[in-house]
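Thought: the user wants the 3D structure for the chain below. I'll pass the sequence to the structure tool as-is, report back what it returns, then summarize two notable features.
Action: structure_tool
Action Input:
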Amino acid sequence: MGRRRTGQGAVFLSTVEKQLDAKRRIVLPQEFRAAAAGPFDGVFCFPSIEANCLEGGGQALFETYRGLIEELPFGDPLRTALETSVYGGMARLAYDTAGRITLPETFCEMFGLTDWVAVVGMGERFQIWPRDEFRAHRERQLAAARDGLSAFRTQQRQARPGTAA
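Observation:
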């Protein structure tokens, strides 16, 4: 578990299972808090666009989405969809003195976050899943990664000069 520094800054690594308390608070790992360090003492969190979970991160993640959105012309339907999903869905979650964030009730209801959750590092972002749903998702992702890597390696071999197709 942890973070590592690259030329692009700290990244979120590993998967940890945590229990939400009765007030919907979760302690993010110290390494995640360090990776998210930025202009305020907390993280940005919003419903993920690509999966049925929460997505979170620090200022770097916010800037990534801002850059993507600003590449699109004002009024473009994709820009509007991203603005609504990312900016409109985003919450700034500050740490308390114990390093906990409190998940908004709407987020918990939206994704069924009631007890145990998986906090999954994904580079410059992390995701928060109901633990059991993440376990099933992880198995599907592992199978997709195996199949995709195998197909990618086959394409690489076929693209080499002198290799029969």
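Final Answer: Structure generated. Residues 5-131 form a domain with the Chemotaxis protein chec fold (CATH 3.40.1550.20). Strands lie at 5-6, 9-10, 15-19, 25-27, 42-47, 54-57, 91-94, 100-102, 116-121, 126-130.
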